[in-house]
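Data availability (excerpt). The following record was deposited with the supplementary files.
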Amino acid sequence: FTPTLNRTGSEIVLLNLISVLDKDIDARIISYYANGDLKNALSESLSVTELYQSKSSSSLFSKLLHRLEKNFTVAKKLKKQQDCIWYINTIVLPELIDYAMKWNIRVIVHSHELEQMFQLLSPIQLKNLIDYPELIIANSAASAAVLKKLGRVKPIEICYPAIRTSQIKKDEKAYFLKRKELGIAENTKLWVMAGTLDDNKNPQYFLEAAQAVLQKNPTCKFMWIGGTPNKNFENSLKNKAIELKIADAIIWTGEIKNDFYAYFNCADGFMLSSKKESFSLVTLEALLYGLPVVANDCEGVREIVGKDYGKIVANAKEMAEEIIRINSLDCKTDTAQLRKRAEEFELEKTGKQWNKLLHQFLNTP
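Predicted structure:
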């Protein structure tokens, strides 16, 4: 089970793992909501069921439709899955835990979340999540620590997110072509942040750091790769950039699907502004491109960059100071070392660990 089959970090992690699932394990994919754009990326051999055909909104009609689906259609669909072990991707599908408990179904939960996400659960939902699953797979030591703090005593295994590292390489020709298309001069340093424009990704912090850098390096440019359905929030950020007098130095790409890596490829550095991250796939991608990484101390990213593969900072001022230092002529980045670090999270390696965990679970009565 996965929430939407959209391009969120947790769902990309699941689809990557499913692509290396051992052939002797039969898997069915169930998307909590319908019409996710990753559906087409799944193998044709995988069956896909969608529970809710419409997402709930504030309208009375939508709420009524959602309630009817929950009481009739969804229950009927879930009843057909009683003979399966349920692998629930993310902690934010508490209804599935309730159904599983009712029918005494074995459950594995894959947790990608830190403290702030657990606040979405009611006290009883939280208790059931912590106590009921036979196994919880945490995507990092940071997310595992949260589960233990909340009272988890049953098994927790850490399985880091992984990607096919061989598919991500710096393309020098494409670097210059994309920058020319974007109007970025050859001698301009371009720093990027990638992620949905939302409060947790902290675009305000991004703008504050950019402003501080531009006061010292006025030719520098910054790009946010990603968009948001909340146009009011997006417009408020663009207005903030105008207010800070840095609008001309900021590129907002909006939502990108198929061309994401082309934008990432034309960067000179990566800045992670997030408030909280249990891990950070996009940081791995930055390392694969050989980009220097400067990250806000958002917890999980520490497990990637440590002390040797990037810089963890406490605030926007520190981030700006580090970017200015890296932009200096005296500072050189060992791109081969960065790529080697990212390759430790190769999908084939992690996939073996994941399949081993699944086989151990399946062989346990």
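Summary of structural features: The chain has a mean pLDDT of 93.
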